[in-house]
Amino acid sequence: MNAIILSAIFGIVMMLSSAFVKNTKAYKSIALVGLIIILLANICETYSHSWLNIPTYDMLAFDRFGLYFNTLAIACTILFSAFSQREIERVGRYVGEYFALIFFVLCGIFILSAFNNLLMLFIGIEIMSIPLYILTGARKENLKSNEASLKYFLMGSFSTGILLMGIALVYGGTGDFALTHHVEQINTSIAGAVNQRMSFLDVAGMILILTGMCFKVSAAPFHFWAPDIYDGSPSVFSSFMATIVKAGAFIAFIRLFALRENETTILQNALIGVDWKMLFSIIIVATLLFGNITAIFQQSVKRMLAYSSIAQAGFMLFALLSLNDTAKEGLLLYVVAYSVATIGLFGILAKMKDYTLAGYNGMAKSHPTLAFANAIFLLSLSGIPLSIGFFAKYYMLMAVIQTGGYMWVAIVGIIFAVISVFYYFRVIWSMYFKEGTVELKYPATKGFKILAVILALIIILLGTFPQIILNFLYF
Amino acid sequence: MIVLLILIPVVAGIISFFVKSGKAARTLALGASLLTFLAALVLVITAKGTVTLDKEWLPQIGSNFSLSMDGMAKMLCLLNAVALPLILSSTIRERYSNKGNFFGLLLLTQAGMMGVFLAADVLLFYFFWELALIPIYFLCSQYGGEKKIQAIFKFFIYTFLGSLFLLIGIIYLYLKTPDQSFALSSFYHLHLTATEQNIGFWLFFLAFAIKMPVFPLHTWQPDAYEQAPSAGTMILSAVMVKMGIYATIRYVLPIFPEAVHTFNHIIIIFAVVGLLYASLIAIRQDDLKRLIAYSSIAHIGLMCAAVFSLQEIGLEGVMIQMFNHGINVLGLWIVASAIEQQTGTRKLSEMGGLATKAPVLAILFMIMTLANVSLPLTNSFIGEFLMFNGLFRYNIWAGAFACVSIILVAIYSLWAMQKMFYGEVSEFTKNAVEAPKNTQYALVVITIVIIVLGVYPAPLLDLTKDTVQAVMHLK
User: Fold this and answer.
1) Is B156 in the A-facing interface, judged by CB distances under 8 Å?
2) Hey, where are the domains in chain B?
3) How many CB atoms lie within 10 A of CB B143?
4) Residues of B in contact with A466 (CB under 8 A)
5) Residues B4, B8, B10, B15: what is their CA dihedral angle, to the nearest 10 degrees?
6) pLDDT per residue over A341-374, tens digit each?
7) Which residues of A fall within a CB distance of 8 Å from B175?
8) Nearest alpha-carbon partner for B314 in B301, B304, B325
9) Tens digit of each residue's pLDDT (9 = 90 or more) over B135-193
10) Which residues are in coiled coils (chain A) (predicted)?
11) Which residues of A touch B157 (CB under 8 A)?
């Protein structure tokens, strides 16, 4: 609760300060302070010191997993805003408002990590999405940015509509918005469901909810929006959308399924008798296929990262296929691994003049520090040991193999992991093995370089001791 | 003490990246490699039995940083430690841009391979298995020949695909261990059904077969050896391909004994076919580097066949041949790169009459060639003799076909010798002089090793006896 309320408050504070504070340099400091306060408040809540309690009548349920996810999301946002603050300032004139919108997005993510009622899912998704539509179009004079914004808005609201329709159908079928039922209730409801030969409304509603969620996490076949929108919006905000926002959507997705043993969710009740694991396997394979194969053919690194984010979403979906403890831990690791690396890559990309692969030629000579950091980020995304990306993939594969019977998904997964190496390494080729000079549109300051190296070192440190992250989930 | 073998090259390698002056980097690399050699020598001579080290690393998933050094590991560590000073001293005059980077990558490769030979924890083994690959990839792609990027990437993709299958295999077996541990000993005590053994066997062996490489997975090797810089080729063929044989003996034979008995016929057929095929191709090669590459494939094919003959005597032969082949092929590469430097070509048809220009080089190459042919009194004779003996005991036809390769080896080796060193002096060879002193010293050291171990191979046999016994009796 702390985080939800504080992020809303800070969103308003940022909005007001953009009206009253004239010094543009001050915004990022206010925002950073705000983020740190939210982080601390959230950590306090994790250790049961919650002081902003509002009765939610069971519509929100705060558990360790969701709260810890919040902590990681805020930490990633702090890294993001520290690394890309200058780029945020360069997007346009309304810097304070951009930060305000980021706070509102965070507020939506915090609701998504705690919803216990399908209505709250809808509200969370909306709170998260609407600021993003604005951020996508932040570069008002740029036609591409406008186009992306409109596209995102139309597609996003359409998919939210589908989600809402699904929720309505489920309500019609079950008469309840509540997400979880306790064991005693299920037994009767299972019996009831089986007797009724599965309510048609339930199944139809669930399929619509799944469709809406697949859209939000850009899983195939609902992934077509992602590349255009990531490509069109300002690089800083693509970075934010592709990482923290996507992670938020994933956490909402996994919450639709029961994560505790004696509970089952309305979704699972509705899907009794449906081979939904097979359905997920098909979605995973399709996502991996479209994301990876299309990424190979991209000449622009920014577009390649957009497709790579689809491909990585395919790996994160492994968690939804397996739904066990390993999958839970793995999803957290994956979120961190993928976010840190992608934030780093986009942060450096935003400084570049030329977004194509050729623009990276010879980076190792002209900017060795940035090239080194980039190389580590790319190695992490391809899942090479000693980077956190390896453990992320390891946990996902482990989770799937543990499930049993889905070994083939794991094998398809690794084949696509090998394919992904190809396009990640093409950037490394350009940087290290090709001649050329890299021109930066904006100079890389010393602080920026240090931050890039710190991000790279975080990846290596967590890649050696992934327990640093996972320990906090339990202790 | 044992951890020093990994620690010295890692630390020296990292420092080397920051050394600006080429001379200082060279001294550092040479000093560090000699220090590692000294440490390995002291360990091999003084340590009785198996040396172990066990530190906690990832307790939650049951993986420890545990190293163990039995006879086979001692021998291969010694080979690894001996190879690097020889490589460095023979290639030290070659001109590279950014020497610190070059030597750093070379040292990190050595560290990774040390880890592979020492690891007694399967996840740790996987870590090092991949870590040995990354620096050599960067090394060869930055400093190699014209088509280096494609050729080395082919090598990388092949091995990476193999290692991901290995990862799946490791996870698959890990989930079957009763105490959920990655320790090698708990993998040894697994009780697997026949199907589980078959699945695990192929998942593991595929990775190792690619690394060796066994026909028909060998296609990366000639390209990679041709395009890599000479130091890279040397480390690849002298030490890195031994990782495949080593891992087969360490993991495949003890963990999947029944599957090995099921499939060893197929593998021996492939290995023997590969042995003859590579020897025949080698006869037709006009490029000295490709000739040595195919010759190396042939030798490895024989070792692989001998491993799967499952005879004690054959395994003893493999053990000493791993060391001796490493030494011999190193000698061949050193001579080959010296010749290339002198004449500016690698084409056998363009050379001739080198013996009159560089008699010392001719004598040294003669010794390397004879060792490659496994003439009695050279080190590889006893190894090959034992391996053929093992193969004959397994099946007389397999042995007979494998023996044909002895003739083929003699044909292409002596033919190459004849074309290069005798006959008319060509325009490429007319300006050739003796190889520089440092190369000669390195070759003299190798010659001494060849002759001493050829006359008195008992130390190597004694050293590895414990591993052979352990592997044969586990079954």
Assistant:
1) yes
2) 1-255, 311-475
3) 21
4) 58
5) 150
6) 999 999 998 888 888 888 888 888 888 889 999 9
7) 398, 401-402
8) B304
9) 988 888 888 777 888 888 888 888 889 988 999 899 888 888 888 888 888 888 888 88
10) none
11) 418, 421-422
